[in-house]
Structures are given as structure tokens and as C-alpha cells.
Amino acid sequence: xxxxxVEVHGPGVGSLLNRIEAEGLANxxxxxxxxxxxxxxxxxxxxxxxIHLFFPDPWPKKRHHxxxxxxxxFAALAARKLAPGGVIHAATDWPDYxxxxxxxxxxxxxxxxxxxxxxxKPVTKFEARGKRLGHPIRELFFRRGNxxxxxxxxxxxxxxxxxxxxxxxxxxxxxxxxxxxxxxxFDPINP
Length: 191
What we know:
- The protein is α/β, with parallel strands linked by helices.
- The chain contains five helices and ten strands.
- The strands form two sheets. The chain has an eight-stranded mixed β-sheet with strand order 2-1-7-8-3-4-6-5, with helices on both faces. Strands 9-10 form a two-stranded antiparallel ribbon.
- It is globular, with a radius of gyration of 16 Å.
- The N and C termini lie close together (6 Å).
């Protein structure tokens, strides 16, 4: 499995690059750009095995809810990018945001509730912080269509925005996500 991390926050990219070097990882690439643009313009429709949204910013104040990543337009985009049987796996420590995500994803006609994702969720620093504060951790799973889960062999996009990590699994044999952003060309990474 190869990884492509997408991050708009410069210090987050720098921190990630330092960790990549310290761990000696050779199977990871980083794109400093808006994750929604990458998803919209570089990922082919019906090409993702899974999208992982682990602890996205909950924007708890009602007047800020419009800033939440999970909105009807995002749910439609995510559903369009998932392959039949592909899974959205989300996690949050904010009960209100969990309810919000469940409602938004449930209203997307291509998605249905699922029992599990493709891979276990890693413990993030946001999850550890939430547990320390006594917040309940809630995971949500939604699948596109009734088809069985797709093959977990994948290229993994770790998308961060405001410090959150989100994974998008792209089947290795799918080359449709090739593209150019800000003059940089990206091609599938050979396993």
C-alpha cells in the first residue's frame, strides 16, 4: 500500500515530512493543497474503496456549522467517488457532529448504513484528547450500494485540514486519479 497525504496547512506538511524522514518511509507522497479540490479533480468517479474521516473539525458553534467538512455537497461528492461497495468510515468525539454526519450521509441516496469499514481505525491524537476529556467516541460507517466490500489493496490518501487526518483508499489498479494541481503532475505510485 502506498500513501498520498494531502494537507493545506504548511506546518502540518512540514511536520509530516519530518515524520516521513524519521521513519524512513519510501511509500508516501505529500500534496499541499485543498483536499476537496484533490478529491474533485484528481480522483476518478467510482474509484475509491474507502474514505476515512477521523475526527474532522466539529465546528461546535451553530453559526459555524456551515464550515463543517461533512455537508450534503461533500456527501454527494464522496458517494460519487466511491466504487460500488466502497465505504465511508467517520469518527468523532462530538455527539452533535456524529448525529449531523449520520443525518447528512443517510440523506445521500447512493449511501446506506454499514456495519464496518475496510480497516481498523488508528488512535489519533484527537481521539486520545477526546477520551482524556471524557468525550464519547462514535464511529459511523456508510457503504455505497449493496455490493460487498471492495478489495482493500489501495493507495491511501491521508488528507488533513485544520489538523485532522482523513484517508481515502484508491484501488491500486485504477489510474484514473492521475492529474495536475498547481503545475505538479501526479501519477499512481508503483507498489
